[in-house]
Design goal:
Blueprint (H helix, E strand, L loop, with lengths): L1 E9 L5 H6 L4 E4 L2 E5 L2 H11 L20 H10 L5 E10 L2 E10 L2 E6 L1 H7 L10 H4 L14 H9 L2
Helix pairs in contact: 2-6
Length: 161
């Protein structure tokens, strides 16, 4: 079974009104909350809200990595903070083979990049004895985005994103 996710990660309390406005599913995990996203999701919101530009990406990130600048705005609205610290993570695994990418952002600045464990550590996740941060928060059980994100491909076509 594969593991394919892209998510915005917050280690601070988030605002329900912003979650609902941006049609996100909150997945509370120990020490953080992940919000599944996709490049269609961020492309849609970037177009609808009139944002331009991209966030810097980790050096080895694939061409389809969540980098639309609107994600910093969404993180800001979720956190209720004009300069939020948040993570963007992506996995591509199948049968134990694959890769992962992660960036830690302060607003639109890439503050650090590396493994998902590294970024989770920077967000304050403390690994349980015998586990890494990824397994401590149970990220392995979140293998794919919620179905509600699938509609953003069609929504992108509707708004010309």
């Amino acid at each position: 079974m594969g593991h394919h996710i892209a998510a915005l990660v917050l280690a601070v309390p988030w605002r329900e009104q912003a979650r609902a406005r941006f049609d996100l599913v909150a997945v509370p995990l120990p020490g953080v909350t992940i919000f599944h996203i996709s490049h269609y999701y961020s492309g849609y919101w970037q177009t609808v809200l009139g944002w331009r530009g991209t966030l810097p990406t980790p050096p080895d990130a694939p061409s389809i990595y969540p980098d639309d600048a609107v994600l910093a705005h969404i993180a800001s609205e979720l956190a209720g903070d004009p300069t939020p610290t948040f993570g963007l993570i992506q996995t591509e695994y199948f049968g134990g083979e694959g890769d992962q990418w992660a960036g830690l952002y302060v607003r639109t600045h890439l503050a650090a990049s590396g493994s998902i464990n590294y970024v989770l550590r920077l967000l304050g996740v403390v690994a349980a004895p015998g586990l890494d941060e990824f397994d401590t928060i149970g990220l392995a059980s979140h293998r794919r985005a919620p179905e509600q994100l699938e509609r953003y491909e069609e929504l992108c076509d509707e708004v010309g994103a």
